[in-house]
Amino acid sequence: MQGTVLTFQSETNTGLISGHNGERYTFSLIEWQSRDKAPREGMVVDFEIDDKSAKQIIVMKAARSGNKSRVTALLLAFFLGGVGAHKFYLGQTVWGIIYLLFFWTCVPAFVAFIEFLILVFSSDAAFDAKYNNA
């Protein structure tokens, strides 16, 4: 069965998963099979059911940490890219400041248009991997 991690308390190493069938299942960190990723709210997982407990839990999709939108980044790069708005939005503050300092040269606007095109042709998965995963 698949579901989503609702909560995880690191103090007790226990949590709660909402199954796609509408039921909720408790779990223990002992049953967590993906040792490289700690349980976090929003993770999509696959698991076996034992009564009302989740067993043999495997991460299917990691939770987004930033929830940044590719469409928002696209719009900012196109309309306000010359002043680095998209850089600030994507968490690249230093680059945003550099764009602001040199906006009068029009070079940042040209670079922002290139970045806009890169964002247009990149996939949602590539965008999420670069900007939304912890």
Q: Report the major sheet.
A: 5 strands, antiparallel
User: Low-confidence spans: pLDDT under 50, at least 5 residues?
Assistant: none
Number of strand elements = 5
How would you state the average pLDDT, rounded? 89
Strand order of the largest sheet: 3-2-1-4-5
Topology:
Layout: E1 2-9, E2 14-19, E3 24-28, E4 44-50, E5 53-61, H1 70-80, H2 85-89, H3 93-102, H4 107-121, H5 124-131
Antiparallel strand pairs: 1-2, 1-4, 2-3, 4-5
Helix pairs in contact: 1-4
What would you say this structure looks like, in words?
The chain is α+β, with helices and mostly antiparallel strands and 134 residues long. 37% of the residues lie in helices and 26% in strands. It starts with a strand and ends with a helix. The radius of gyration is 20 Å and the shape is elongated. Strand 2 (14-19) and strand 3 form a beta hairpin. A five-stranded antiparallel sheet has the order 3-2-1-4-5, with no helix packed on it.
